[in-house]
């Protein structure tokens, strides 16, 4: 069936608008943190995979870092193990860490790899243990005033990034593969550590000197106090918005991650709405974009 003249004009307009961006980003690395609704809704999962494959096809180098908190929680519940959180982070004893590795490094990672490959890509799954990619250190959580002056809290195998050796990622990118990274690191003690996926994505983007860091979220992006979308923000403006309380709560760590990446050498960071089909492609290849840009 042929397109109507109006539909054909719209297709031509979209392609013409995308062309300068394809030229601009060809050969550049873009790190995408994949999570939220985009990981659980079937239609969104498929649109994300197509976006990633399209990027690689036109000469852009996507690197995917994924989360998996809800999937970990679901399996722990099925196993009869209750999840406990302190300061928004899952308390991770050795038994829970085994489940985290099984879910993130196995089930979720391989599901994403398979999804990308089914859409014509060539994805390879990694954890931070592969090629000594992510060196971790144990994360110390400071007690709050409500804890009555207690010492720093031990939440088990939860870590932060100590260093990134991206050699294995570089090798895969140069081999025309799409790396898919689970945020599990290894410490000097040889133990595995679960690390926040946003933080891993930001550090990987810094080390790779990525053109962009894209964080998929379940919100439209950063909103003003009046509810309008804020974008085109300089690091100085972000600091002002943190100081006046516009950026607060759950958005604060994402913004800080995006800001740190820019200060670490990433050209721009983007916080975009992963609930929108083809959100990555819209952000990359259109004039308007779809979320908050920091750079």
Largest sheet: 7 strands, mixed
Calculate the mean pLDDT score and round it: 89
Helices, by number, come to: 9
Number of strands: 13
**Could you give the order of strands across the largest sheet?**
5-8-2-1-11-12-13
Determine Rg (CA atoms, Å). 20 Å
| Class of secondary structure makeup | alpha/beta
What is the terminal separation in angstroms?
A: 44 Å
Secondary-structure element pattern, one letter each: HEHEHEEHEEEHEEEHEHHEHE
> Strand share of the residues?
15-25%
**Helix content range of the residues, please?**
40-55%
Detail the poorly predicted runs.
none
Structure description:
The protein has 295 residues and is an alpha/beta fold. It has nine helices and 13 strands. The strands form three sheets. Strands 5-8-2-1-11-12-13 form a seven-stranded mixed β-sheet, sandwiched between helices. The chain is globular and about 60 Å long. The mean pLDDT is 89.
Distinctive features:
single chain, alpha/beta, four-stranded mixed β-sheet, 9 helices, 13 strands, 41% helix, 20% strand
Task: Set out the fold topology.
Blueprint: H1 5-25, E1 29-34, H2 42-57, E2 61-66, H3 69-78, E3 85-86, E4 89-90, H4 94-118, E5 123-127, E6 134-138, E7 158-164, H5 167-174, E8 178-182, E9 184-186, E10 192-195, H6 197-208, E11 212-217, H7 235-243, H8 251-263, E12 268-273, H9 279-285, E13 292-294
Parallel strand pairs: 1-2, 1-11, 2-8, 5-8, 7-10, 11-12
Antiparallel strand pairs: 3-4, 6-7, 9-10, 12-13
